Amino acid sequence: RDWSSAVCSSDLVYTMGLRGDREFVLAFDVATGKEAWATAHGSAFHNDQGDGPRGTPTVDGDRLYALGGNGDLSALDARTGKVIWTKNVLREFGGSNIIWGISESPLVVGNKLLVNAGGRGASIVALNKTDGSLIWKSQDDEAGYSSAIPLEVNGGTQVVFFTAERAVGLDIKDGRLLWEYSKPANRTANAATPIARANRVFISSDYGTGGGVVEIKPDNK
């Protein structure tokens, strides 16, 4: 069973799925559709709305980063599926799983791997993508279901996350909060990925909430 989407790089297609009581990261040959490798990855996430992993793996060069429904985060060799490092971000950063399971795709920016771990003081964490060590942690929000995006604006890089409570823009260097926008958030499931164009970011959610646009000015106000 699989709630994940697929991502293609070179001659392989990657996704995640549930086999028995384990989640797996999977690779398939583009030309033949045959399984190239399958790597066990954390325990199975179970929910009355559907079991299995939710997020789509992220490809970064010769590595693949996968985040499972129970918060298991792994770096794998994209060609062979060998695990390079792994950790559970909920346990490590004090987060609690959300109702329908951790669902985001990890974001890679430079040497950083970023996820919404949902812990107190560690809602959003930036890890060294090489070994999984912590670079910085920021904010207190519970995790949302959305995936983050990078934003180049005002001569620097921000990362935009839509947590369970609000959209936030953080400085990629140190996790400093640059702006926040809570109006599009609902208390059920913030799941849509923000959309950025130039210095504007569109954030929206369902359940009758709607959306809005943040315009980022030079003073970040």
Kindly report the average pLDDT value.
95
What is the number of helices?
A: 1
Shape: globular
Q: Strand count, sense and closure of the main sheet?
A: 4 strands, antiparallel
Distance between the termini: 44 Å
**Percentage of residues assigned to helices:** under 10%
Structural class: mainly beta
Order of helices and strands: EEEEEEEEHEEEEEEEEEEE
Low-confidence stretches: none
Give me the side-by-side strand order of the main sheet.
1-2-3-4
Strand composition percent: over 45%
Radius of gyration: 17 Å
Number of strands: 19
Description:
- It is built from one helix and 19 strands.
- Helices cover 2% and strands 49% of the residues.
- The strands form five sheets. It has a four-stranded antiparallel β-sheet, with no helix packed on it.
- The protein has one helix at residues 89-93; strands spanning 7-9, 12-19, 22-29, 35-43, 58-60, 63-67, 72-77, 83-88, 107-109, 112-119, 122-128, 134-138, 149-153, 156-162, 167-171, 177-181, 195-197, 200-205, 210-215.
- The chain is mainly β and 221 residues long.
